[in-house]
Amino acid sequence: MRSSFSLLVLIIGAFFFEACSKKDAPIVNQAPSNLSVTASVSTDNSGNVSFIASATNASTYDYDFGNGIFQTVPSGLVTYKYPASGNYTVNVIAKNTAGQTISKSISVMVTVAVSLLWSDEFDQSGAPNPAKWGYDIGAGGWGNAELQFYTSRTDNAIVSNGTLKIIAIKESYNGSPYTSARLLSKEKFSFKYGKIEVRAKMPSGFGTWPAAWMLGSNINTATWPNCGEIDIVEHKGSDVNKIYGTLHYPGHFAGTADGGTKVISGATTDFHIYSCEWSASAIKFSVDDVLYYSFANNNTLPFNQNFFVLLNLAMGGNFGGSVDAGFTNATFEIDYVRVYQ
User: Fold this and answer.
1) 217 with 305: CB under 8 angstroms?
2) 278 in helix, strand or coil?
3) Which domains, and CATH codes, for the chain?
4) pLDDT digit string, tens, across residues 114-144
5) Which of 18, 37, 144, 159 is at 20 to 30 A from 334, Cα to Cα?
6) Quick check: is 197 catalytic?
7) Is 229 labeled as catalytic in the residue annotation?
C-alpha cells in the first residue's frame, strides 16, 4: 500500500515538474523583436562612431555602415572609424540562430578632420624631386597611339619659379616627332582613400593631351584595366575649356569608361584646382571645389587598394587627336600636388 502511494506521489510530482518545465522553457527560434540601435559620434573629428544594437531573441547583428563596409557583431556593440566626412545611413540586421531577422536604419553625420599626407609644392628648382618622382621612358603611350617620346630630360620636365613644367616639344627624337615627359610616384608614394588636389594650368594647342591621374599599385601583376585607373583631370587642346574626370576598370575602359565633364573658363590661361575625393563608397571629381561627377564605389571594384600618381603631357593619340601643323611646343604647368587623409 505504502509502495503504491509512493509511486502515485512520484507520478504526480513528475507530471507537475514536466508541466512547469514546459511552461518556463523559452520558445525555441522565436523571431527577433524590439530592435534598438543607437550611435554616439566622437566629438574629436576622428570619424569614430560607437554603435549599440540590442534586440530580443537576437544572436548576431549585421552592420552596414552606409559606405560599402559591412561587419557582423555578435554582441551588437561596435566602434567604426569613418574615413571621410558625410551623412551615412546605417542599417543593422538582428538575426537569431534560425536565420529570422529584423532590421532598423539610422542616420549619422560624421565630420573627419583631414591632414596633409603627401605633397610636392615644386619649390626646389631643377629636375623634379627624385625621392618623389620617377619617369616612364618610351614612345607610343602604351597603347594610346601617342606621338611623343617620353624622356627624363629637364628639357621636358623642370621645376622653376615654384611650378613644375612638363614641356612637349616638336623635335625628331628616337623615331618620334615630339618629346615630352611622364612622371609617376610608383614605388615612391601610393595611398588608399583620401583627397588629392592638383593645381594646374593646361597647355594650349590642338593635339595636346595633359593629364593628372592614378593607377592601381598592382598594375604589374593585375595589368590594366584590372588594376583600375582614376583620371583626376584630362584635357585636350581641341576643346579648350572642357575638362574630364574619368574611371577605367574591367568592362568600363577606353571608350566605355565612366566619367563626367565640365566646361570652365581660362583652362589654358589660369590655374585651377582639380580634385578627386575617394572613399570606399564614392569617388567624386571637382574643379575649384565645384563637384561635377560622382561615382558609386563598392568592394567588387579595383578602387579599394593603393594607387600611385602620374603627371604627363601627351601629343595626339586616341584622345588628343590631330596635332596642329604649326605646333612647336606647349607646357603643362603644375603648381602643386597634395594628398589629404
Assistant:
1) yes
2) strand
3) 33-110 (2.60.40.10), 116-340 (2.60.120.200)
4) 899 999 999 999 999 999 999 999 999 998 9
5) 144
6) no
7) yes
